Amino acid sequence: MSGAEDDRRPLTKLAQAGRKAEWTGMPGQPGGIVSPSVWRASTILYDDVAHLRRAAGSSTHERLFYGRKGTPTAWSLADALTEMEPGAAGTMLFPSGVAAVSCALMAVLRPGDQLLMVDSAYDPTRAFCEQALKPFGVETVYYDPTVGAGIADLLTERTRAIFLESPGSLTFEVQDVPAIVAAAKDRGVVTLIDNTWATPLFFPALGHGVDISILACTKYIVGHSDVMIGSVTANEAWFPKVRQMAYLFGQMTSPDDAWLTSRGLRTLGVRLRQHQEGALAVARWLADQPDVARVLHPALPGSPGHDLWARDFSGSSGLFSFVLKGGDEAARAALIDGLAHFGIGYSWGGFESLALPVDPARYRSATTWEAEGPAVRLHIGLEDPADLIADLDAGLARFRAARG
Ligand SMILES: Cc1ncc(COP(=O)(O)O)c(C=O)c1O
Q1: With a 6 A CB cut-off, is 127 part of the ligand 1 pocket?
Q2: Residue 384, Cβ neighbours under 10 Å: how many?
């Protein structure tokens, strides 16, 4: 594409990105198909030994070389994700969001380094720090998600990287990304963010100065709860390192999964708009209910970091939590178990609504989680919010009855 592509708005990019002519057409023939097909491959055949030697000696990124380095199906998805992030130099794909997080961390950290990790990080990210990085000689220091510019006070000679997740898992604190990035740049510290909640559509992280943006594409990019996949998108300074680490660890995704993910990406805009609308309707209704102590939704005034969300984000997605007033585990289960329109299960970002009991106190070390009662995380799918609200209304009645 020409320089004019920089002017395209994100929704236009979603429709066009990753559709290079060489992946959708036949050499020497006019026209082509709309989307790159599924190219399955392990072996790539060469014309002769000289050709094979040339291929081995050259940079093999986005060239047919061997199946593990991808085929046009994966390159198309990776390019599309890169196009969605102004400031990005490239994207690598991984078999899950967790694989993307761990490989991105391995790309930047060395034994002896210190990592600053947000205290509201997704639990398996914390587990990677404790169970893989620690034995590797990297010390993780957890920080308060509301620290903002105060992060500067935590930086030491050994601080190599700051990991952000905004909003945070389970409790949805929005971080002051520009302030943290400014402090990091001042000291030559690399920043990484788990941007799964907002996606580049609502928060283009590299455009806000973050070096490395990680997505569990399993959620909104796929959008249909049927593929596990992750991505790491990085700027010019860090993309070569991320790519090298992904190759060394043999990380890749299957062509079929990449193709399904590309298909999901095309409708991300309309789906997110609907998730946003439905979630806001449900969250606002919950905020008015006498049995609900708090709703943790970044777009609701009073939610932690709401002002930062309003300043930096262009939308909100379908995942948030609420805290019940009083009650115990059994009363919370009474609410969740009888829901007709919400599945009970991990993950989120699909077209279907989900409800999950969550206990954030278990996953905090730099801060404490204190609440008026048990908490529930909801993912609001694409159903009619009126049906979801009626379902939750009946659930709150069950909660009241069980709470006594
Ligand atoms: C915020 C966040 N990051 C990363 C992941 C991990 O993604 P995956 O399940 O694809 O490994 C999840 C999964 O729930 C998540 O919620």
Answers
A1: no
A2: 11
Best of 218, 225, 228 to mutate for ligand 1, by most ligand atoms within 8 A of CB? Answer: 218
pLDDT score, position 162: 99
Distance CA 275, CA 216 (A): 17
pTM for this entry: 0.97
Q: How far is the CA of 346 from the centre of ligand 1 (A)?
A: 9
Q: Per CATH, which fold does 268-403 belong to?
A: Aspartate Aminotransferase, domain 1 (3.90.1150)
What pLDDT was estimated at residue 1?
43
160-182 residue pLDDT tens:
999 999 999 999 999 999 999 99
Q: Mark whether 294 is an active-site residue.
A: no
Q: In 280-363, at which residue ranges do the beta strands (DSSP E only) sit? A: 292-296, 319-324, 343-344, 354-358
Cβ 105 vs Cβ 130: under 8 Å: no
Average pLDDT over residues 234-260: 98
Is the Cβ–Cβ distance between 196 and 216 less than 8 Å?
yes
Q: Which option is the CATH number for 71-266: 3.40.640.10, 3.40.1390.20, 2.40.110.10, 3.30.2010.10?
A: 3.40.640.10
In whole angstroms, what is the distance from residue 232 CA to residue 212 CA? 7
Q: Are 71-266 and 268-403 equal in CATH topology?
A: no
Q: What is the CA radius of gyration of the chain?
A: 22
| Per-residue pLDDT tens over the stretch 6-23 | 689 999 999 999 999 999
Q: How far apart are CA 197 and CA 316, in angstroms?
A: 8
Pairwise CA distance, residues 232 & 226, whole Å: 20
Phi-psi region of 190 (alpha: psi -120 to 50; beta: other; left: phi over 0): beta
Q: Report the 10 Å Cβ neighbour count for 332.
A: 23
Domain spans of the chain, in order of start: 71-266, 268-403
Q: What residue type is 185 in one-letter code?
A: K
Is residue 122 annotated as part of the catalytic site, yes or no?
A: yes
